[in-house]
Amino acid sequence: MNKDRWTGLVFIIACALLWFAVIPQQTDGPDEAFVPRMATAGMFIPALIMLVRRPKNQSTPPDFRAGAFFHSTLPAMLLVLAYLLGVAWIGFFFSSLVFIPAALFIFGERRVHAFWITPAALLGGIYLVMVHFLHLELPAALLI
C-alpha cells in the first residue's frame, strides 16, 4: 500500500470518528450537526478517492530543487500573508479578487480564461452560499 492509500485510510477513520462519536457529543440535534457533518463529508470524499485509486507507476523519483522554495513557496507564503492583511483592510471580496489570480499565476497557470473564470466562480459560489443562503457576514473593509 502506498502513502496515498495510507493517508486516505487515516482520513476515512478520522471522518468516521467525527461522524459517529465527536459530532453527536458536541452538538444538540440534527440541525446543529448539519454543517459539521457536511464538512466531514467534504473530507471523506477525497479520502475515499485516495484510498481506491491506483497509483501511477513512477520510474523516476520526484525532483526537489533547492531553488523551488524561492521560486514558488516563498512568494506563495508572502501572498497568503498579504491576503490575510488585505482581508482585514480592504475586505474579503476585493482581496480575494486579487489573491486568486495572483495565486494562479504563482503556481504556473497561464491560460487567460482561468484568470477570470476561477475568481468569478469561486467568489460567486461563496457569496451565494455564505451570504445569501446562510446569511453570514464576511469580513468588510476597515478603510470604508
What is the helix fraction of residues, given as a range? over 70%
Helix-strand makeup class = mainly alpha
Strand elements, count: 0
Low-confidence stretches: none
SSE sequence, one letter per element: HHHHH
Oligomer category: single chain
Number of helices: 5
Q: What is the distance, rounded to the nearest whole angstrom, between the alpha carbons of the first and last residues?
A: 54 Å
Main sheet summary: none
Q: What is the overall shape?
A: flat
Number of domains: 2
List the helices and strands and how they pair.
Elements: H1 3-26, H2 30-52, H3 68-90, H4 92-106, H5 114-133
Helix pairs in contact: 1-2, 3-4, 4-5
Could you describe the 3D structure shown?
The protein is an all-alpha fold. The protein folds into 2 domains: 3-52; 68-133, no CATH class. Helix content is 73%, strand content 0%. It has helices at 3-26, 30-52, 68-90, 92-106, 114-133. Helix 1 runs antiparallel to helix 2, helix 3 (68-90) packs antiparallel against helix 4 (92-106) and helix 4 (92-106) packs antiparallel against helix 5. The longest helix is centred in the N-terminal third of the chain and has 24 residues, at 3-26. The protein is flat, with a radius of gyration of 20 Å. The model has no long low-confidence stretch (mean pLDDT 86).
